[in-house]
Amino acid sequence: MDKRSTRANGASRRVQNRDRLEADIVAEAVRVFAECGYEGTSIATVAENAGLSKQNLMYYFPTKQALYQRVLDDVLDEWLERMTHLADAGMAPGAVLRAYIQAKLKFSREQPYASRVYAMEVIGGAKLYGEQIRARVIPVLRRDIEVFEGWIAAGHIAPVNAAHLLFAIWAMTQSYADFAPQMALVLNRRLGRKDFDEAEQTVVRMVLSTLGITETAPPVPPPSPPDKER
């Protein structure tokens, strides 16, 4: 192996190591921001929990706001990725909406801390991340409203205010992350996969009923694997 290849391989490993370390920092930051909020979170706490010195963490994220921005960027990336189902014009409205609701509930189940960080930012008035939300969420919302308007015009669904229906779906699905502690308190147990399966069936039935869609044979969910502790 020549020197050029050796240098290239070394640079590639450094990039991979940096990416891994940044991902570890962000994963810990999501949890701390979700539990403590932006004001209650310190760089020192995130660094300690991630097994780093404060100075080492600040090499990658020089300020708390930079770390918070990265956390919310990653959350919004994944949240929007799971909202792509309404763009699939080749599926019937009922199937599209079921897939959309499944994806939103899966996000709440798999990424509860991420959902809570985003919710806390929005509830607080989106003072630190409002511009990004406006720039990225509004175009997707407009596209999805156009999908509903197309279904209505074609007679596939009953007339509905698409924006408010989407807001209701977001609220119903995200509540299983943002208010999971309250649900666990009331149920006297941690939410399990079965709860999410039943939530999906309930939300889907409510939405499809509102739109006048009748499913001929609702899909049977696959057997749920054992839940792992978060």
From TrEMBL:
One GO BP annotation of this record: negative regulation of DNA-templated transcription
Domain HTH tetR-type stretches: 19-79
SUPFAM superfamilies: Homeodomain-like, Tetracyclin repressor-like, C-terminal domain
DNA-binding feature ranges: 42-61
The organism's place on the tree of life at top rank: Bacteria
Keywords: DNA-binding
Signal sequence residues: none
GO MF annotation list: DNA-binding transcription factor activity; transcription cis-regulatory region binding
InterPro entries in alphabetical order: Homeodomain-like_sf (IPR009057), HTH-type_TetR-like_transc_reg (IPR050109), HTH_TetR (IPR001647), Tet_transcr_reg_TetR-rel_C_sf (IPR036271), Tscrpt_reg_YcdC_C (IPR013573)
Record PROSITE patterns: HTH_TETR_2
PANTHER family per record: HTH-TYPE TRANSCRIPTIONAL REGULATOR RUTR
Protein name: TetR family transcriptional regulator
Organism annotation: Pseudoduganella buxea
